[in-house]
Structure formats: C-alpha cells, structure tokens
Design brief:
alpha+beta, Aminopeptidase, 6 helices, globular
C-alpha cells in the first residue's frame, strides 16, 4: 500500500470513488442537498482549480481511497474524503487522514453533514473535536464557499483548540 499525491491521470478514478462512496449519504442528508452524481466532473474540476490537492491510497496499483487538503487563509481544510464502498472499515481513511494531518503547522478543519454520523464518529475517533453551532456558522462562512442550506445542515470539526 502507498499514499501519494494524485496525478492528472487519476481524475476519472477520483470522480468514480467520490460518487461510489457518497452513496452512503443518500437518504441521510437532506433530500434537497442530494443529487446524482453527487459530484459532477465540472464540480471536481472546480475544486481542483480552487486549490484542493488530492492524495490517493493505493494498493496493488488500484486507488482505494482519496482525500483532499486545501490551504485557505490561515487554516487547512480536509476536503472530499472517500473510500470505495467495498473497502470501508479497513483503516484506509485513517491512514489518509493521518498522512495529511501529521506535522501540519496550521489549524485543520473538516466540514461534513450533520446527518453523516458515521463520518463525524470517524473524525472524533481520530482526535478531532466538534465546534459549537455558533463557531460552525462562522467557520463555514469564512473558509468554505457553500450555500446557506449546506451551512445549516453541516458540522465542523477541528484538530486542536482554536
């Protein structure tokens, strides 16, 4: 197994993994926030153009998980963390998260859906802490470019005291 920075050639695989793994949200997140595909190719290109750098967890030449990191102002955001549905609960997400968060000098923030309790539990288990509703609203508006409806239905986790 190997974790590496994504290459241009990985675009279609990243797109596939995001849309495979995001099916877990269907029926959990608000219906008005769900769409198929969950992330279009144009949206993925936009994220890359906005500075999200993806890393890939690879085993025997196959990418099994992806996770992005983005420098925004004075923090780093973990973005779009997904593991292939058939390879969940094998520690792939944990390895990617540790790889991207170890030895970072900046505060690290993660936003996810309030209803994605499995994702929240994953980040809590890996040392992140939920911020208050008030802090969440401020952080999501400062560091993310998302609709108000998504702000209402999301949480933010942080890796250390702010």
């Amino acid at each position: 197994m190997n974790i590496r920075k994504a290459k241009i050639d990985d675009f279609d695989t990243i797109y596939e993994i995001i849309n495979d793994a995001s099916i877990a949200y269907k029926g959990h997140i608000p219906a008005d926030r769900w769409k198929e595909p969950y992330m279009t190719k144009d949206e993925l290109k936009h994220e890359l153009n906005e500075g999200v750098v993806f890393y890939c967890f690879e085993e025997n030449g196959e990418i099994l998980g992806v996770m992005g990191i983005q420098d925004v102002l004075d923090v780093k955001l973990i973005r779009h963390a997904y593991v292939r549905t058939n390879r969940r609960n094998e520690g792939i997400g944990t390895q990617l998260l540790r790889y991207l968060t170890d030895n970072q000098g900046k505060l690290i923030l993660i936003g996810t859906w309030k209803a994605a309790t499995w994702a929240i539990d994953f980040y809590l288990k890996n040392g992140f802490k939920l911020v208050s509703e008030e802090e969440k609203n401020v952080l999501l508006r400062k560091y993310w470019n998302i609709p108000d409806r998504q702000v209402e239905t999301s949480v933010v986790l942080v890796n250390r005291e702010m």
